[in-house]
């Protein structure tokens, strides 16, 4: 999922841009929006996006000033600017700030879609390159690595375990020596015995007492293989006393390996500091968390809910919550929330609720912007809210 932040001081243009992004097949999620650069700069550090789309001229901080601040703090953010024809030359000079592309007003839907799709592809390519670089760096220090592929294209399914021996360390702590010198070799040998067809890497974690085990399989695992995998985790867990281990859900492809590793360590740290029992399997715990998120959205769909709200309520990072929810339900949290809202809006527009005023429906299902609600409703149903009600009443 690619996170997008929008900055535009014209409400109608911002709404139209959001609607266009929602209509794309590319997996995008609008994680925030602002009406000026200063507001955006205050919001972005709470959840840095992958893509920043900003108007070039706004009151107070300009789009270029915002981009300069954001890219200095978050170099991986891909900036796209919006400008009028009068700012064309000004926009072109922005390419020196590593702006990926620019959109001219009035926005042409096909041009917007093309630019956003190309930007999304660039972000995915960068992530893949980061993963390839990561593997190139860690392979030389992995024990007896077998058949390391030049790329990762031959591996279709990954499973990852993050292991901590002793206390979780923080930036102000010194690393401790490995508890057992041959742990890496023992873990790799155990994986090879149970899964001779798999690739196995045992690599350093963040500190000297942390390890990451990455298993790559040519295809998805069968139920029997899953059972063998559980035996492997248990065997590895028992190698060293006072160990905590978290295990990922299956990952299809390598695009989210780095993100998953960071999520696992966050999850590990939260479990250790909360005195939760030491053996912790990520897929079981996260399914429960995903269910809680689903229940929360079903119960509160009629009020505004943002990803920041979910993060504050469940005490996990936004990226972690999105990853957990998508793994459980194959849909992003806010997209699922909108599906609930549209379903309830259809009920309010049915002949059973003819006393509900059309203008109140969007607010009753949790939308703060009635224009955005109308566009989303039409996208999902093929009809505007008024057309849907008219059809419902005529069907009596």
The counted number of beta strands is 11
Helix share bin: 40-55%
| CATH topology name of the largest domain | Rossmann fold
Annotation field: number of helices: 15
Measure the end-to-end span: 43 Å
Low-confidence stretches: 139-151, 170-180, 274-284
Main pleated-sheet profile: 6 strands, mixed
CATH class of the largest domain: Alpha Beta
Modified residues (4-aspartylphosphate): 55
Keywords: DNA-binding, Phosphoprotein, Transcription, Transcription regulation
GO molecular function, one term: DNA-binding transcription factor activity
GO biological process, one term: phosphorelay signal transduction system
List its traits.
five-stranded parallel sheet; Arc Repressor Mutant, subunit A; 3 domains; Alpha-Beta Plaits; 396 residues; six-stranded mixed sheet; Rossmann fold; alpha/beta; 11 strands
Task: Give a quick precis of the structure.
The protein is of the alpha/beta class and 396 residues long. It folds into three domains: 2-132, 3-Layer(aba) Sandwich (Rossmann fold), CATH 3.40.50.2300; 153-277, ACT domain (Alpha-Beta Plaits, 2-Layer Sandwich), CATH 3.30.70; 296-396, Orthogonal Bundle (Arc Repressor Mutant, subunit A), CATH 1.10.10.60.
Description:
- With 396 residues, this protein is α/β, with parallel strands linked by helices.
- The protein is 49% helix and 15% strand.
- The protein has 15 helices and 11 strands.
- The strands form 2 sheets. Strands 6, 7, 8, 9, 10 and 11 form a 6-stranded mixed β-sheet that branches. Strands 2-1-3-4-5 form a 5-stranded parallel β-sheet, sandwiched between helices.
- The protein is globular.
- The chain starts with a strand and ends with a helix.
- The model is unreliable at 139-151, 170-180 and 274-284 (pLDDT under 50).
